[in-house]
Amino acid sequence: MNTSEILKEMNITFDDEKDSLFDFFLKHKGTKVLDIFPKTINYNEKYRTVEVFYQKVLDHCMKKQEFENIENRFLYFVKTLWLYNETYVNILSPEIFNNYYYKRNKKILKKNSIVNLKSIAGTDEFLLIKDKNVLGSACIIATRDISPVVFYFRNSKILFLLNGCTGLLYYGFPNDILFTKRVANNCSLYLHKAEANK
């Protein structure tokens, strides 16, 4: 499955000459943010002290276990949606295997998962995910800042862009918002409107 087929299924008109998929997520008023915070923090100095990203672990500014606890919330969220959906994934960056963060996380990423994901990195193609280890590796690629990853939960018509420890959700069917909100709450995560959409 490729990007244009998915967008067509979701009735999204999109001009890839002018916009990126990321820009579409930000501009659309129906997009929700999945985050560890209940709403956008507008005070940059304060936000920098609590922001979660993998480099903080490498710089010894955050304990690895603390990061992994937050990372696991996102992994559980994605795995829960995967259980109820035919799930496709796309790795946005073509350079992930030369990436500094990839080299730092080689051991945690499953070898068979990487072979499958390598074929779609930086392409227009989405890979159907049937194996939870491949799904887990795709999540880690995103949460550890190796590359942003887009998940398409086909049955629910949800596009989910995971980039670090935050994500953007676009719903093809608004009635699944309640379900994803319940899953997010169960994972100690919050769904709220994207700041650009308010």
Commentary on this structure:
It is a single chain. This protein has about 200 residues and is of the alpha+beta class. Helices cover about 40% and strands about 15% of the residues. The protein has nine helices and seven strands. The protein has helices spanning about 5-10, 20-25, 45-50, 55-60, 65-85, 100-105, 110-120, 130-145, 175-185; strands spanning about 30-35, 85-90, 125-130, 150-155, 160, 165-170, 190-195. Strands 3-2-4-5-6-1-7 form a seven-stranded antiparallel beta sheet, with helices on both faces. A hairpin with a 4-residue loop joins strand 5 and strand 6. Helix 5 (about 65-85) crosses helix 8 (about 130-145) and helix 5 (about 65-85) runs antiparallel to helix 9 (about 175-185). The longest helix has 20 residues, at about 65-85.
Task: Quote the average pLDDT.
Answer: 84
What percent of residues adopt helix (DSSP H or I)?
40-55%
- What are the secondary-structure elements, in order, as H or E? HHEHHHEHHEHEEEHE
**What's the arrangement of strands in the largest beta sheet?**
3-2-4-5-6-1-7
Coarse structural class:
alpha+beta
Low-confidence sequence ranges: none
